[in-house]
């Protein structure tokens, strides 16, 4: 996704690139929490987003190439947030789309979740509405 999700009137987008190392998860979690805190998101939603970023990036790190970086893009919309994390990965991501703990957590706390592999670059896209019962963030 290289544009602001449909329905966004805030137009806010942040992109971060960090080394493919678990010690940098703190930066990504903090960035997502900071963006969400500027909206109507409640404390529980913000904590869910921290967990989602942690789980998604961990899935990427399990397969990311050693010299790789992880990119995290965050888009705010009036009614929710879209987060994409991506990295160059070796083969299939372990724990994606199955009954792994990470995947079950992501599926439980997000409105929409998908994984794409484009030429070895794996992207995990996550959407969360501020009101959990509402429709996906993008139209």
- The structural class is alpha+beta
Uncertain residue segments: 134-139
What is the mean pLDDT? Answer: 83
Strand order of the largest sheet: 1-2-3-5-4
Number of discrete helical segments: 3
Helical content band: 25-40%
How would you describe the overall organization of this protein?
This protein is of the alpha+beta class and 139 residues long. The chain is built from 3 helices and 5 strands. The protein has helices at 25-37, 43-61, 101-109; strands at residues 13-19, 69-77, 80-88, 112-118, 121-129. A 5-stranded antiparallel sheet has the order 1-2-3-5-4, covered by helices on one side. The longest helix has 19 residues, at 43-61. The two termini are 14 Å apart.
Question: Brief overview, please?
Answer:
With 139 residues, the protein is α+β, with helices and mostly antiparallel strands.
